[in-house]
Every structure is written in C-alpha cells, then in structure tokens.
Amino acid sequence: MRPDLAALIDHTFLRPDAVRSDFERVCREAAHHSFATVCVNSAHVALCTSLLADRQLPVAATVGFPLGAGSPTAKAAEAAQAVLDGALEIDMVCRIGALKDGLQAVFVDDIRRVVDAADGGPVKVILETCLLTDDEKRRGARWACEAGAAFVKTSTGFSSGGADENDVRLLRAEVGPDVGVKASGGIRDAAAADRMIAAGANRLGTSAGVAIVTESKTRDRGY
Predict the structure, then answer these.
(1) For residue 132, what is the DSSP state?
(2) SS3 129
(3) Among 75, 124, 137, 182, which one carries the catalytic annotation?
C-alpha cells in the first residue's frame, strides 16, 4: 500500500437511512485508519464532531447535496451551520444547469457564497461530470477555481455515473498543480483508487475506504 493512501480518503457515509450506530462505526473506522476526513450530510456534522472530539480528524459536510439545485442563500446558510457544528471542510454541489447554460456569474456566485460561509475551510466543488461534456467540465473547473474552490470533484455518486480516470485527468490538466482534484463515486477497490491517483486525484471520496486500504496492505505484502 502506498504509505499515504489512507490519508487521501474522505471516509464517506451519505445514506438517507443512516442511524447513530452507523456514524459511531464510521468515526471509529476513520480514526483507526487515519483517513483524511469523515464526510457526512450536514445534519450529522455535530454528532460526528462530538464522536471525534478526542481525535485530530476533520469532519466534512455536504452542501446542496445531491442535486445542487437549491438557492445560493440556502446553500450558504447550510455551509455556515455546518461550520458552526464543527465541519472543517465543505463538499458542495454546483449549479449544474447554470454551468450548462454558460451562466458564469450565476455559477461563480453560487460557489463564492459557500466559500465565504466556509470561513476559510476548503470547499470542494462537485461538478457531476457524468452530466457534462468535456468542454463543460473544463469550464466548470475554471469557474470553480475563480470562485475560490480548493478542490474540483467529479461526482456525488448519486447520479448516472461516478468517478472516471479520464475525467480526473482532464480536471487535473485544467486546474494545474495548485488546486485539488477529488475523485468520488464508485471507487470500490484498491486498483480503482490507484488509477484515480495516477490520473491526478489527490483526494478520494468513498464509502469503501476500509476495504480499499485493507486490500492495498494485503496486496503490498504479497498475500
């Protein structure tokens, strides 16, 4: 296993039927494996922050998830509340329709309001690449950077497709080395994680983080 693999994983749990015991388990797993963050819907940030109170492990909150179609005011309010509840990172879904319509000012304003509400914490902008042409992906990446995004992210995992290494490579080429690229959606094994990292991802969103790092360790030991 590459030494830093666990540190690249946002340990993600976004199921709508999640209960407290799920979050207790997810936080234990994240702490044990030293994942980058625990990523949850914003309603569960306070709980996960309390569960990780004795650990230096950030909680990331989704905003406008999974459609991105809420008002900019609502998204900013959700992000602000998540920060008050303890979130140190925000994963927001962009205005996909505005991107496809070429409405740069609308698209940028939507993100910028969340960036401002995040109070200095990194904002990852989910482009939902499965719904975009390559030109739209490039444009979305550029505009997200203009709005102050710390990362551009491929997918929610709730639409018609997930992370694709060609999309990761395209986004990395567009944003350069100084902005993060997060691959998310459908990353279920160590081989897929390796492909995304090789293509340029420096963060992975997955609910299969434990299986991925366990498989990677076993493979590297030659078992």
Answers:
(1) S
(2) helix
(3) 182
Which structure tokens are listed for 24? Answer: 């207790």
Helix H or strand E encompassing 124: strand 123-126
Helices (H), the chain: 20-33, 45-51, 72-84, 96-101, 104-117, 134-146, 165-175, 190-199, 209-221
* 182 has catalytic annotation: yes
Which residue is catalytic, options 85, 91, 110, 164?
Answer: 91
pLDDT for position 218: 84
The catalytic residue among 10, 85, 153, 164 is 153
What is 6-221's CATH superfamily?
Aldolase class I (3.20.20.70)
Domain boundaries, the chain: 6-221
Determine the Cα–Cα distance for residues 55 and 33; give it in Å rounded to an integer: 12
Give the integer Cα–Cα distance in Å for 66 and 14. 10
With H, G, I as helix, E, B as strand and everything else as coil, classify residue 36: coil
pLDDT digits (tens, 9 = 90+) for 91-144: 999 999 999 999 999 999 999 999 999 999 999 999 999 999 999 999 999 999
137 is catalytic: no
SS3 45: helix
